[in-house]
Structure formats: C-alpha cells, structure tokens
Amino acid sequence: VSQNPVAVYSGHVCVAKHTKCDYVGEQLLPVSGWGTTFIIPPLSFQPKFDLVYVAASQYTHIDYQSGRVRSTKDLVAGQVVTFEIKFPSPLYISANAGIQVIFFCTGGSKGKIMYDPFFLMIPDVSGYCQTYNIHGQDLFENYAIITAK
Fold it and tell me: Which intervals hold domain IgGFc-binding protein N-terminal (predicted)?
C-alpha cells in the first residue's frame, strides 16, 4: 500500500530451471488491474514444463482446468500458488475476486535452439482486443501465440 503511485517489479537475478543462470523480471500490476478469467497457453516448443504463479490479495476461490484435470482452490490474502503448464494443455483459471497471473518460461532447448527463461504477465480475457501489431526480430526465430476467448 502506498500513498503515492509506485511501480513494483518481481524477478530473480539468477534463475536456472531448465537452462543456465539468467535474469528475469516483470512489472507487477496494481491490485485494481487484476482480473478474474484467464487462459494461459503452453509454449509449443517447450519439451519440459513451465510455471504459472497465481497471487490473491484477499480470500479468493479459483476454479481451474488443464487438459481433463479440473479442480478448485481457496486462497487467502497474500497467497501465491504455482501450477505446472505443459504442451499441449492450456490452463484455464476463473476466480471470484481479482487475481494476478504470471507465466514463468523456465527456458530450455529444442533441437539446436536454446531459449532463455522469462516472466510474462497474463492478461485477463476482458483485456483481449481485435487488432494487434506483431513485429519479429531479424536473425531470430520469432513466435506469436494467439489466444482466443
């Protein structure tokens, strides 16, 4: 809680799950920007698994499904739960109060291609739009993940 606007970041200076040590970081959303319905797609090139962190600011009931597995959890204020996500099963989450959802790509390799870990804020489906611009980076293999409501 702050009397003036602040930005809050989360990250790690040396995360090493499926790769060598690397830095990850992401700016967190203010609680007022949290959502209640999320679709988290897995990365098609991840042969192992990635992680999804879900944070609650108050007592929150969540329903979630990955593949055919469907379940619920009750979270208390300040609690963070972790889910593994693996291709080809997306993770669907709905909550009765706002939650913050962060995707953690654990890095790895597929064939001769090595990729670094990263954090990514997952938007609530209410924030989806109909038009996007996608720009690739020269001399890199670029991917776009398109998620439909």
Answer: 1-148
